[in-house]
């Protein structure tokens, strides 16, 4: 984060090296984020490149940013949303439903973002908690079945599930409060 502040200041002055460093650090993350929203690696790469093109074009304005990370992800989200809107309109040809379409696309995009955040949060959990959560939510096993399979008590399973759900709720609430 502190390095980002320095790079942003240098970038605002036109430093190609600072842009390159920010690009190398953030491009893979931005592309990955967009790819999970638009479900296409090729389109995600193009949209991520567009995001960084706009960052370069608007570099003088970046000095006032409090969080480059938030800024770049907001741009990525908007690029993906705009792409999905455009794609839907091209496919539908029905102008009567444009207002309804935007709400549906935004809802779908929001649901995909939430799903991605859940997956990322679960991926960072300790091994045992992650395994218990996935057995419960992905495989549909009961707490008793998980306890037997893992050779632990039902209470331990419940504790791990409670901690996992608490962690996921915290992440989703932070995300929701940021974008709402």
From TrEMBL:
Recite the UniProt keywords alphabetically.
Answer: Sigma factor, Transcription, Transcription regulation
Q: Which domain of life is it from?
A: Bacteria
The UniProt record lists the RNA polymerase sigma-70 region domain at 22-86
Q: Does the keyword Transcription regulation apply?
A: yes
Gene3D superfamilies noted in UniProt: 1.10.1740.10, Winged helix-like DNA-binding domain superfamily/Winged helix DNA-binding domain
Where does the record place the RNA polymerase sigma factor 70 region 4 type domain?
122-167
Q: Does the keyword Transcription regulation apply?
A: yes
Similarity comment: Belongs to the sigma-70 factor family. ECF subfamily.
Q: This protein is called what?
A: RNA polymerase sigma-70 factor (ECF subfamily)
Naturally occurring in which organism (per UniProt) = Parabacteroides faecis
């Amino acid at each position: 984060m502190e390095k980002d502040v320095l790079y942003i200041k240098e970038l605002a002055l036109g430093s190609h090296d600072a842009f390159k460093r920010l690009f190398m650090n953030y491009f893979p993350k931005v592309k990955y984020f967009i790819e999970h929203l638009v479900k296409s690696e090729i389109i995600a790469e193009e949209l991520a490149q567009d995001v960084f093109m706009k960052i370069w074009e608007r570099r003088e304005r970046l000095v006032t940013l409090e969080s480059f990370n938030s800024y770049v992800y907001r741009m990525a989200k908007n690029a993906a949303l705009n792409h999905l809107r455009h794609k839907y309109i091209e496919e539908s040809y029905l102008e009567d439903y444009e207002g309804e379409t935007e709400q549906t696309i935004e809802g779908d995009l929001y649901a995909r973002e939430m799903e991605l955040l859940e997956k990322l949060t679960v991926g960072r959990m300790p091994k045992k908690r992650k395994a218990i959560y996935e057995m419960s939510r992905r495989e549909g096993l009961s707490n008793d079945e998980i306890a037997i399979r893992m050779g632990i008590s039902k209470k331990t399973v419940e504790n791990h599930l409670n901690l996992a759900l608490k962690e996921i709720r915290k992440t989703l609430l932070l995300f929701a409060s940021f974008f709402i």
